Amino acid sequence: MTVPISSPTSRAGLEARLSSLEPEEVRWTLLDYLTGKTSPEVTLPRLVLALGYVEEVEACLDQVARSWRPQPPPALRKLVRMVRERRRGLERMAANLEEHPDPGVPFRTPEEGIAAYRRFFDRAVRRDEPSSVAAHSLGDAEVLARSTAEVVELLDHLGVLGTGRRALEIGCGIGRLLAALAPLLAAIHGTDISPRMIETSRRDCAGLSNVTLSLTSGCGLFEMAPASFDLVLGVDSFPYIHHISRDLAGLHVREAARVLRPGGDLVILNYSYREDIAHDRFEVAHLCEDCGLELLTNGEPPPLRLWDAYLFQARKEA
C-alpha cells in the first residue's frame, strides 16, 4: 500500500480526463498513480511496458500535462520531471524490460523456463544492476537502497528477524537483501539460478562472514537440509518460478516447509504474474494447508511506499 498522493479532482473526474488515452493500460496506470494507489517508481516501468519506449512515455506525459486545464496536478508534473531527470536509468531499465520473457506466454517445460530466465538475468545484471532485480528502482542504486530498507523494515515489523535466526533467500539476485539483513540475523544463505547474479552477490557481500551463496538448478531446495532455517524469503522471486511452472512454485512452498524449523516463517512478496490476487490467495492457502504451514497473512498489500506488492506469511507449526 503506497502513501496517497493528493488529487485535485475525484476519481470519476480523472477517468474522464484520461478517457482518450491509448492503450488502455496507460489510462489505468495513470489513474492508479493520480489517485495515490501506486508510486511514481512503480508507474514509470508500467508506462514503459505499455508504450515500449521511454521517448513514448515522455511524449504521452507531456501531452497529458499540456492538455490539463487549468494546470496539471503536482503529481503529474512530478512524473514528467522524473522522466527527464532519470532518462538514462529509465532507458537501461526499459532495455531490460524489453528482453523479459513474456509472462503471458507459458513455457513448454520447466527446463525451458529456467534456461530462459537464467539467460535473461545474466544479461540484465550486466546491463544495469538495480533494474535487473527491481524495475521500480528506475536504474538508480539509491532508489533500490531505499526500497530494500523498506523491505527490511517490513520484515522487522513481522517479527521474523533476530540475531539467533538463520534465513534462506530464494532468488537473492544481486544480494541487496543479503547484505542488508546480515547484521540482523545469525546467518543468511542466498540462492539464484543466474551465475552473474551470484557473482555480483559475492562481490557485494564480501567480508560478511554470515552470508553464504549457492548457484541453484531452480528445480527445488533439495540441497538444503530439513529443519535448517528459521526464515525462508521469496521477495519478488515466486512470480518467475510460477511463470516457469505453477507446479514448480508449489514445490518451492512445500520445500520451504521442509527446510523450516518448527516455528519458522515463510515470507513471500508477490506470488505470481497473473494479476489475479484472489486466485493467488486460494492457491497459497491450499499449499500451506497441505504442508502444515499456518497462513498468517494471505495476499495483503504491506505498507511499502516505493513498491506495490502482496504479502504472504506462513508459519510452520511448533
Molecular structure report:
It is a single chain. This protein has helices at 11-18, 24-34, 40-51, 54-67, 74-85, 87-99, 110-127, 129-133, 141-158, 176-181, 195-204, 238-244, 246-259, 277-290; strands at residues 162-170, 185-192, 211-215, 229-235, 260-269, 293-300, 311-316. It is globular, with a radius of gyration of 20 Å. The protein has 318 residues and is an alpha/beta fold. The chain folds into 2 domains: 11-85, no CATH class; 148-316, Rossmann fold (3-Layer(aba) Sandwich). The chain has a 7-stranded mixed β-sheet with strand order 3-2-1-4-5-7-6.
Brief summary of the model shown:
The chain is an alpha/beta fold. 51% of the residues lie in helices and 17% in strands.
Tell me, briefly, the overall form. Answer: globular
Cross-sheet strand order for the largest sheet: 3-2-1-4-5-7-6
Q: Could you say what the CATH topology of the largest domain is called? A: Rossmann fold
Number of strands: 7
- Structural class, from helix and strand content? alpha/beta
- What share of the residues lie within helices? 40-55%
Strand content: 15-25%
The CATH architecture of the largest domain can be named as 3-Layer(aba) Sandwich
Q: What is the CATH homology-level superfamily of the largest domain?
A: Vaccinia Virus protein VP39
- Largest beta sheet, briefly? 7 strands, mixed
Oligomer description: single chain
